[in-house]
Design goal:
Strand 14 and strand 15 (274-275) form a beta hairpin. It is built from ten helices and 15 strands. The strands form two sheets. Strands 7, 8, 9, 10, 11, 12, 13, 14 and 15 form a nine-stranded mixed sheet that branches. A six-stranded antiparallel sheet has the order 2-1-6-5-3-4. The chain has two domains: 5-128, Aminotransferase class 4, branched-chain amino acid transferase, N-terminal domain (D-amino Acid Aminotransferase, Chain A, domain 1, 2-Layer Sandwich); 134-291, D-amino Acid Aminotransferase, subunit A, domain 2 (D-amino Acid Aminotransferase, Chain A, domain 2), CATH 3.20.10.10. It is of the alpha+beta class and 292 residues long. The two termini are 23 Å apart. The protein binds pyridoxal-5'-phosphate. Pyridoxal-5'-phosphate is lined by residues 53, 197, 200-202, 221, 223-226, 260-261.
Length: 292
């Protein structure tokens, strides 16, 4: 099957020890054209909800545990009922069965606050084009202020910077602004001068034998791809470090990437119009490791 798949999930409380047949009975495939929300759903009206996007290659989803853990953490941050992770895992497995067994795809998990009688939940599975030219050609980025300091995660948790919320209008606006500036993507910066993350990706720099990424307490989402890459890079002898990254280091490093679950590692070739060093050999190893 190559068409997009939509799977509705009737939420089971997280503490219910539901047997496998009950988990399966709580899932229902619907035609992709069938309406699944009322006009009054808080997800549609206010972007009040959370999501996850998993990358799939050759029938296997990468980092299911990490994505489910982040879904659970986002639910806590938004005071949403805890998701039943066994149920969501069952949903991911059902979608993997329905998607093509070769090539690449993405699976999205969505929870909205609903209409007042409990959350609205669904999953989608979408086959994606197998070639991502950005993985080899690279991307030019524009640095764009996020409008707050790097300690926002600690000092203003209600801004939800570490949660993967449905309110991505700002992230999409940043991508459009980057394109207006002649770039392909953006790197958000803090008002106190630190590089944070892309609108839909994590930032990694190489400085000699050391790989650096911003620590999550500095107002960013904990990236599952970055975590997988750090495990791989440590296993092949690199040192991996979490710390604050002054914006100037984007220009001074030996290589830089924006990494995410579906596009994987995209090497940054220019920052605000200035060309920077790339490491295409390491990029190829990183993407091969993620696809393996
Ligand atoms: N940061 C933000 C703001 C994101 O939206 C994403 C993914 O969409 C990431 C980082 C990368 O996360 P992951 O590697 O888990 O896809």
């Amino acid at each position: 099957m190559t068409t997009p798949q939509v799977l509705l999930l009737s939420p089971i409380p997280a503490d219910a020890d539901a047997p496998e047949n009950a988990l399966r009975a709580s899932l229902r495939f619907v035609p992709p054209t069938e309406p699944i929300l009322t006009a009054f759903d808080a997800g549609a009206g206010r972007g009040d909800g959370i999501f996850e996007t998993l990358g799939v290659s050759d029938g296997r989803a990468r980092g299911i545990d990490a994505h489910l853990a982040r879904l659970e953490a986002s639910a806590v941050k938004l005071d949403l009922p805890a998701p039943n992770l066994a149920q969501w895992r069952e949903g991911v497995e059902a979608l993997l069965d329905a998607l093509p067994s070769t090539g690449q795809a993405s699976i999205r998990l969505v929870i909205t606050r609903g209409t007042g009688s409990g959350p609205t939940c669904w999953l989608t599975g979408t086959p994606v084009a197998s070639d991502f030219p950005e993985r080899t050609d690279g991307i030019r980025v524009a640095t764009l202020s996020r409008g707050y300091a790097n300690d926002v995660g600690e000092n203003a948790p209600w801004l939800l910077v570490g949660a993967k919320t449905l309110s991505y209008a700002v992230h999409m606006a940043a991508l459009r602004e980057a394109k207006r500036r002649g770039a392909d993507d953006a790197v958000f910066t803090s008002t106190d001068g630190f590089a944070l993350e892309g609108p839909t990706s994590s930032l990694i720099l190489r400085q000699g034998n050391t790989l650096v990424t911003p620590a999550i307490q500095h107002g960013i989402l904990a990236g599952t791809t970055q975590a997988d890459l750090f495990s791989f890079l440590e296993s092949v002898g690199f040192e991996c470090v979490y710390r604050r990254i002054p914006v100037g280091e984007l220009l001074q490093s030996d290589a830089a990437w924006l990494v995410s679950s579906v596009r994987l590692a995209a090497p940054i070739t220019a920052v605000d119009g200035t060309a920077i060093l790339t490491d295409l050999a390491l990029t190829a190893r990183m993407n091969a490791a993620l696809l393996a």
